[in-house]
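2024-03-11 09:14:02 DEBUG pipeline.ingest accepted 1 chain
2024-03-11 09:14:02 DEBUG pipeline.ingest length=182
2024-03-11 09:14:03 DEBUG pipeline.predict start
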Amino acid sequence: MTQPSQDDSTLAERVGLILRSHRRAQNKTLAEAAKAAMVSTSYLSAVETGRNLPSLQVLGRLTESLGTSIQSVLEGEGRPLVDSDSTPTEPGVVRSTNQMFHLSTAVARYEPGFSGEAPLDLDAKDVFLFVKEGEIDLEVDGETYSLGPCDAADLAQPGNVRIGTSDGAVVVWSTSPRHLHD
């Protein structure tokens, strides 16, 4: 079995994440899923962690054993998870979700003087945000951070998040459930 090339590594990681998600949803152990697909447990582990990209034949056996299809595993390929052209031209928020990756995103344009809550549900979720334009004051659980263009914050299950901007800003927000990272 050949290892994925550098160009394939992100595809391998995405395929592995999707297969692991399907396996866990069915409460199957790694050994049970591997046996049903006629592969070794160590090979399936390498696929799920993105170290190996399965051949089409093996992917077919894996998807069949997990009650899904190759098409559903590769469904989002070639499309970005976040459309960077979706920035609102007026103050407001454009939201999107990717069910396969349990990812919620929002691109928010804040007017000067804005102060308020995050535009996504943050309950028991990890949060990543990126400042595309302008400057913000980000308050996380009572601590305030000043962020400017191209700054980012990665927050592990924050309790209370507020944002403020004196001159206006564009911020890309993303959330995912914590259990996907364990």
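2024-03-11 09:14:41 DEBUG pipeline.report The domain at 6-73 is CATH 1.10.260.40 (434 Repressor (Amino-terminal Domain)).
2024-03-11 09:14:41 DEBUG pipeline.predict end
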